[in-house]
Design goal:
Distance between the termini: 41 Å
Radius of gyration: 18 Å
Low-confidence stretches: none
Strand content: 5-15%
Number of domains: 2
Strand order of the largest sheet: 4-5-6-7-8
Shape: globular
Helix content: 40-55%
Structural class: alpha/beta
Number of helices: 10
Mean pLDDT: 94
CATH architecture of the largest domain: Alpha-Beta Barrel
Oligomer: single chain
Length: about 290
């Protein structure tokens, strides 16, 4: 993994409000310890941690951009869209997020049923206790599998059991990328394409096919940025994405995508992220949006 020195920005972080293992206070304390100046909490399908995050970030002198991460379906493959400067008070957004979380709940229960049918002695209640009211995701199931001795670590659980090629996989009911972008732009948030290339540190993180064709289409729908400086991306991957961002006038974003999952290779806050200029560019795009 390329080490990026003087990293002060991480725009992709997950807490216990979705599938991260650190609470908001623990995540913010870690970010402060690592010297981060600007961050975004981007929990899956929920904004429930943003108010608390903002208060703690203010007390620590860290700039906090309110964020979210949404899953979408692109020709049978899952593609994620991040939203920055999301307005968590908008009721139409919250209604959709509640719908997404209900689907996550139903899907998770079905995955556990499959695992039980395979002979694994786990229970749905174990997953719910681990999620503790947060947005339920497969990482919660993966951790239960680890805790009960069925996997060495969460990545192993995904790779062998619950990932897209695993015997207990259940697909989600997802929006299209264009629908997610529309949902975010209607909210006033800035849509950014998440982790578009393959990653070794993330379970099942495959590259997006025909990226050079897809990005112009998403730009027409309202995409304003793409993750360039992500997790364990190589310098070659970063250079390719930076060139695409420049070509299509997209803000080059990024971050660790930290979950504190305990995987063998897990980039942490302070190890990878975009330059501070990215934050300035996002603010400029937000100001332009407000002026329209």
């Amino acid at each position: 993994m390329p080490l990026h020195t003087n990293v002060e920005v991480d725009l992709h972080l997950h807490t216990t409000h979705s599938d991260g293992r650190l609470s908001v206070s623990e995540m913010l304390a870690l970010c402060a310890e690592r010297g981060l100046k600007s961050i975004s909490i981007t929990d899956h399908d929920t904004t429930s941690g943003l108010a608390e995050s903002q208060g703690i970030a203010d007390s620590l002198g860290i700039e906090m951009i309110p964020g979210i991460e949404l899953g979408t379906n692109l020709n049978g493959a899952e593609l994620h869209i991040l939203g920055y400067f999301v307005d968590g008070s908008e009721m139409s957004l919250q209604s959709k997020l509640e719908e997404f979380r209900r689907d996550r709940f139903t899907r998770g229960a079905r995955i556990v049923e499959k695992l039980v049918d395979m002979g694994l002695k786990i229970e749905w209640g174990m997953v719910l206790r681990l999620a503790d009211g947060g947005s339920v995701g497969r990482p919660h199931i993966a951790q239960v599998l680890v805790d009960n001795g069925y996997a060495d670590n969460p990545k192993d659980a995904f790779d062998r059991l619950i990932g897209s090629n695993g015997p207990a996989f259940v697909p989600r009911n997802l929006m299209t990328p264009a629908e997610a972008i529309s949902l975010l732009t209607d909210n006033g948030a800035l849509p950014v394409l998440a982790h578009p290339l393959a990653s070794q540190s993330k379970s099942g993180r495959k590259g997006i096919d025909n990226l050079g064709v897809l990005i112009p289409e998403l730009c027409k729908a309202g995409l304003v940025g793409v993750e360039v400086y992500y997790a364990d991306y190589t310098e070659k991957q970063i250079a390719r994405l930076a060139a695409l961002a420049e070509k299509h006038f997209l803000v080059p974003c990024g971050g660790s995508d930290y979950h504190a999952a305990g995987n063998p290779i897990e980039p942490e806050p302070g190890e990878v992220g975009p330059p501070m200029q990215t934050v300035d560019m996002l603010k400029q795009r937000k100001a332009m949006q407000n002026d329209i």
